[in-house]
Sugar or nucleoside kinase, ribokinase family (Chryseobacterium limigenitum), 307 residues
Amino acid sequence: MKLLVVGSVAFDAIETPFGKTDKILGGAATYIGITSSILGVKSGIVSVVGGDFPQEHLDMFTKRDINIEGLEIVKEGKTFFWSGKYHNDLNTRDTLATEVNVLENFDPKIPASMQDSEILLLGNLHPGVQLSVLEKMNQRPKLVILDTMNFWMDSALDILMEMIAKTDVITINDEEARQLSGEYSLVKAAKKIHTMGPKYVIIKKGEHGALLFHEGKVFAIPALPLEDVFDPTGAGDTFAGGFAAYLAKKGKIDFETMKSALIVGSAMASFTVEKFGTERIEEVTEADMFSRLRQFKELTTFDVELQ
Ligand code: AMP
């Protein structure tokens, strides 16, 4: 199946307790595209960058067989810039700067070559932009996956609800699920979110893994316990990318396949956090991925004898 990705392609400046970076490559669509390519899945990115975006990054996408016909370059504009500083626990961060730049007037264009994409992954962006992408598809993709965040719940709730109503799979973190539903229990929160539209609800719990809810069933996975987390930026996007790319690769959309997809997402995210920005995920080979998936299997497989 073909995977269409809409999301930011950005410059990030990141500060963690272990160091800081100047402007480096970032953005949700960047992490998702790179992750898909490791799984050998063809993806296309719909996004926008400015004239300041280096050719070497565009070449990196192309080398990975990522279709960038839908990546608009506004020559006289500047690329979206985000800067954040993580606290010592690495679970929380402050946004230091968000310069929307060319994303401000972003009018997504779906290239003809990607119109037949079966899976659409809408990365974290203004819900109005996400909605417009869906409207611009000649036919509705088989699966619409939505990533969003509390910022849009605070600033654009009505249009976000409209987007959520048209979504098959939503991925949000635990705090956002609580905010969206008004329920503290994540089980109750997922039930409420189902009534808003999505048949599948994924709740991410950072270093504690993720939950998948569907038709009264629930599946839980851990995050890989890592000795050192260096920079969590992009972990959520990498997770979503691994999840969507696995479904695309298998060509199947059901609860059982999604269970495995969740593991793949979590395994891929465990790479991203090991170095700054995209540095680590860009090094990962297919063999690295398999080895980490084996680690996951060991972590989660057990027998129980009751007598
Ligand atoms: P995550 O750590 O999964 O939340 O994703 C981090 C990525 O999201 C960074 O590479 C940023 O460039 C990008 N990002 C941060 N804020 C926004 C925003 N308001 N809109 C789009 N992308 C954003």
